[in-house]
Structures are given as C-alpha cells and as structure tokens.
Design goal:
Length: about 160
C-alpha cells in the first residue's frame, strides 16, 4: 500500500513539474517600422519585470516568457506597443512613428587626430522645427547635413564623426 501511494505521489509531482515548465516558452520574431525596415536595437521587455532583450541588426529578437505575459516593445521615435503572449511562438511587430514625443536630439561626436595629445570636441544644436521641416522618413535622415562634421550613414542607423 505504501509503495502504491509513493508511486502515485511521484507521478503527481512529475505532472505538476511538467505543467510548470510547459508554461514558459521561447518567443521570437522581428520588429520593423511602418515601411517594413528592421529596427536594430529595439527593446523587448516582459511587462512588470526587468527581464528583456533587444533586437539584433536584422530586427530579430528571442525571449523566454510565460504564456499570458505581456511583451512591451519600444524604440526611440516610435510609440510603445504591448502584446499579450498567446499560443503562438512567433510575434512580429510593426512600430508606428511618434513624431510628437521626439522634441530634441542630442548628438555627441568625439574625434581623435593622429597625434594623441590633440582632441577634438564640438557641440551642435538642431531645433525640433528644423527636423519637422525636413521631409524625412526617420529622425536620423532628418539630421543629415544639419550638423557640421557629422556623417550619418543609412546602414544601420549609426552616427559617425568625420576624422581630420
């Protein structure tokens, strides 16, 4: 009788452990903007926790979370999006631009010359009105040509200082 009770208790414990681990799964997908371009460096967080990740160069992410939890997607210049985890293991997100929240952009460029003792540092300011007047797809291209000595490349949204 005692052996039968121990066997049933062990089976019940194994079933409970299996249910507990079955709730956590790996969610993956891509984060892109309205035109379908990937957003590298977008943040993906599990709501109410400090667990999160960021997207890679191709806008792809992977995170372990429980079914029923909510994922929070955010990126500078875009509205935050919250999506509940359901039965699917793939969640692809398209972020919408939020031009209202972007008031000021601060770009800091630091350059070194060939001689280590000389150091170049400059501060430039671009008003929000100048960015709004520029008919650009994203804030990075709106800065192109507005800051002296800074070259903004289109791939992958990097600001590169010019070296002299």
């Amino acid at each position: 009788m005692k052996t039968k009770f121990s066997g049933i208790l062990t089976l019940l414990l194994a079933f409970v452990v299996q249910l507990t681990f079955a709730q956590e799964k790996t969610i993956s997908g891509t984060v892109s903007d309205g035109s379908g371009l990937p957003l590298p460096g977008a943040t993906v967080l599990i709501k109410g926790t400090t667990t999160g990740t960021s997207t890679d160069f191709d806008g792809k992410y992977s995170i372990k979370a429980n079914t029923g939890a909510t994922l929070v997607f955010s990126f500078v210049g875009y509205t935050t999006k919250e999506i509940a985890i359901g039965s699917s293991n793939t969640i692809n997100v398209t972020m919408a631009e939020d031009a209202e929240s972007l008031e000021e952009v601060v770009v800091t460029a630091l350059g070194l010359s060939k001689q280590k003792r000389t150091l170049g540092y400059a501060i430039s300011e671009v008003d929000g009105d100048d960015i709004n007047k520029a008919q650009a797809v994203n804030p990075m291209t709106a800065l192109q040509g507005k800051i002296t000595g800074v070259d903004i490349s289109s791939a992958p949204y990097q600001v590169q200082p010019k070296m002299s």
